[in-house]
Amino acid sequence: MDETVAEYIRRTVLKIPRDEIKMMLQKWGFLSEAQLQTLNFHQLKDNISQEVVQLCEENSADIKQAAVLDIIYNHIYQNKRMWSVYQMRKTGEELEYFDLTDFKKKFKRRLRSALKNVTITFKEYEDNAIWIRVAWGTPYRQPNQYKPSYVVYHSQTPYVFISASVLKSNLPLLCQALIVASNYHDIREMELRSHSLNSLKDIVFKRYSQNFQTYCPKPLQGKAVEPENVDLRIVNENRSEKERIHRLNQETFGDGPQPILQFAQYKLETMFKSSPEMDVLDKKEPFRCLVKFSSPHLLESLKSLAPAGMADAPLSPLLTCIPQKARNYFRIREKRGLLPESFLSP
Amino acid sequence: ESGDPQRTALLLRKAWTLYSVTPLYRFCRGRLRDYARLLSAFIAAERQKGLAVEVGVELDIRVTLSSLPELQGSEQDQPAVLVQLSSRSRASPKNSEDKILWSGCFCCVYGDDLSENMPEDFTCLPLFLANGAEGYMSVVGNWFQKTFDCIFRRLAISPFNLSWMVAMWAGCKVDKAASAVELVFSVPRLPQPLDISYAIHPEDARALWDTIQKTPGEITQEEVDVFMDCLYSHFHRHFKIRLSATKLVKVSTAIASAHCDGIVKMLHSQYLSGVLMLLTELAISQIQ
User: Fold this and answer.
1) What is the C-alpha separation between A330 and A314, in angstroms, rounded?
2) Which Pfam families does the protein's record reference (chain A) (predicted)?
3) Closest Cα partner for B230 from B254, B257, B206?
4) Chain A: residue whose CA lies nearest to B244
């Protein structure tokens, strides 16, 4: 077995938390059950990984098999990576039959014709997700297995999720290979990024609970905003205001769990306006700002601002439109013309 | 106060943790070398006691104390005192450069409020800047406290003072391409914490400040309030969020950046003195 492959397998196993190693090796299926039985999982991880490498040596593992183990690890720990969303477009409306074998063949051929040294690995999952791992080399160097790109493609949709490696120069080639293989003619990057791959899917596949203006599933009155106070001397003075805020929040954010995003960024190029008595800046040029919101769970956080008294309800559409518009990067310019208080989000 | 740019340059572009220090009793500027020796022995003793500051290779720690006369504001100010801990690994060759492990600087820039009416035995150096491992700060701080009967306290910076800083610094003229004027707000007590970074193009921030400031060279509380209100209302117009209800935790400009935990970075030599003057004032109000 190649020593670079051995080292790669050793390092991959080292990344896995100790009590998950057995499960992942089983999922991998490269080592037999009998071989797995011989492993002692109660020793130092260093030693476990050495033993795994020994067994792989017995089975003459090559880089292709090692790459599959890496996909399995990254599929389970997908939230460690940052994912971007790309949308593909085709001219006709015909729903073509998707041939997986054909897709893989075309993808490999397109990449290999441009770059001799690449490692390409596929793995299909039950939810119709095709995971693709690409390790990039140069005409003179073997592929760098430690900085691969990952692509997740749901063949029934025009969306591709990419976690690129640091080598951004390979992105155009990757995109080209994708459209060639999937019979689309165009691909563009959406302004949408998150660590949570499932949330990105929720957003673009519209799987989160949307709110419909006309449909009201529960009666509005009598919905408890907070637990009943046992002490009757404590009265909630702003009860009706609290209920109004709660209702508006429901309408804008919906009832269900929010997709998980870590940030939203707004490039503001709008005019600065102040109340006339403030004798301040009155330029004819935009007041240029860059605003970035960050949170482990941004949408939940924004949803809680109005009830906490820190924001008006309803919250600005610039924030609430994130899932519907499927983007978390925005450039806001002043709307030309009549209404001074309105905004244009492109 | 330009002085020797080389020496004050060591203050630039480092993250300094701020402390206030009460006046030092019987601190004698002529005895800096002696103090360095004593501090060195103290550090060695602490390390032997097992209160080791840095685990690792055998290190010879060298202590130097020096005066920085470039860092003072008025005539009454005491010149700054620089404390440096450097090391040379016993393994490395004799002529290799010393590596600076930790730096600390006592200073006072326009600290007249404190130093006037101060009895002769006391030296006023109310502001202390520390850079390096916390362990060293602890040991050095202990020695100074024991030796000169003074007290070190971490100096936090309130949102009120951060607003002053950002308003003041946003108005400064900077020659080359300046970095953005950034305000960072934190909303910790939500079910999911939220951080908001609000960065304004430096020219636009300065233009705004210029229309607010009435007298060049003078800043009033009212002007700072108007500046902040303008920024808050521009933000509210877009997002319907009231930034004034959140906590301002950090401000950043081309001149300097400051964090509410009392950590600053000074970026521009021309305004170094001005920043230190402001920080001296904060230190003094914590002492008094």
Assistant:
1) 20
2) CENP-N
3) B206
4) A310
Predicted structure pTM score = 0.82
Is the pLDDT assigned to residue B57 strictly greater than 60?
no
Note the pLDDT of residue A230: 62
Percent of chain A surpassing pLDDT 90: 58
Q: Encode pLDDT of B107-161 as tens digits.
A: 999 888 887 888 889 999 999 999 999 989 999 999 999 999 999 999 999 999 9
Residue A57 has pLDDT above 50, yes or no: yes
Grouping H, G, I as helix, E, B as strand and the rest as coil, residue B213 is: coil
| A50 at interface of B, judged by CB pairs closer than 8 A | no
Chain B contact present for A341, CB below 8 A: yes
Please give the sequence-ordered ranges of beta strands (E in DSSP) within B108-246, or none if there are none.
Answer: 122-123, 127-132, 152-154, 181-187, 194-200
Closest CA to A62 of A30, A86, A90, A96: A30
- Best mutation target among A310, A315, A333, A334 (most B Cβ atoms within 10 Å) is A310
Mark out the alpha helices in A89-214 (DSSP H runs).
100-114, 171-182, 197-204
- Cβ of A343 and B200 within 8 Å? no
Q: Are strands A329-334 and A263-270 parallel, antiparallel or unpaired?
A: parallel
The full set of domain ranges for chain B reads: 5-154, 159-260
Interchain proximity A291–B189, CB inside 8 Å: no
Q: Within an 8 Å CB–CB cutoff, is residue B47 touching chain A? A: no
Residue B102: predicted pLDDT: 94
Question: What pLDDT does residue A299 have?
Answer: 93
* CA dihedral for A33, A34, A40, A44, sign (positive or negative): negative
Q: Are A290 and A266 in contact (CB under 8 A)?
A: yes
Please tell me which residue of chain A has the smallest CA distance to B238.
A316
Which one of B230, B231, B244, B246 makes the best mutation probe of the A interface by having the most chain A beta carbons within 10 Å? B230
Measured between beta carbons, the chain A residues lying within 8 angstroms of B242 are 310-312
